[in-house]
What does this fold into?
Amino acid sequence: MKKIGKVKLSADKDLCIVVTADVHMNGDDDIDDLYFVLFNIMAEPLRLSVAVVGGFFERLKELEGLTKNQCEKLLKSNPQQYMSLIQKHYATIITQYAVEKVKIPLDNQANADKVRMILTSLLSQKSYHQINRYIIPSKPDPIIEAQDIDTTALASELKVMLDIVKRWETFDLEEYVAEITSQV
It folds into this structure.
């Protein structure tokens, strides 16, 4: 993967969230097409952030010392081991390499309502629809693939984000952390 370009966030007629991304590939033989979409509430300024991170061959080169050929071979022969290596470095990968592509500031009621709808949909639908527009230099048109991404494992984090959005007008991060800590 060369890079992840434009990312668009929308909802379909059933209010299922749709994430559409332009994924620029290095060429026809590039198989490094995996990427993660990350939903989060960020502070300063308070906002919904949709970030992406990909280019895992490059990440594993830096973090594990693997070559591109070793990554390709591992992905083809043992995809579970390949994913285990990515998961091993997940925290480092998302904190150092994720790029914020969509942000909705929580600075007015209309935006707060929009973010609330997004988070509620991710919870109630238990998934979002991901559309990948693979842009390959030798192809005149993008190759489009779609899949549904399960969000059930994110339920507790999504509920916390929803709680923050409900308090957007008076949200204080230090106060919120103290409140959460006292409940533990």
Notes: The first strand starts at residue 3 and ends at 11.
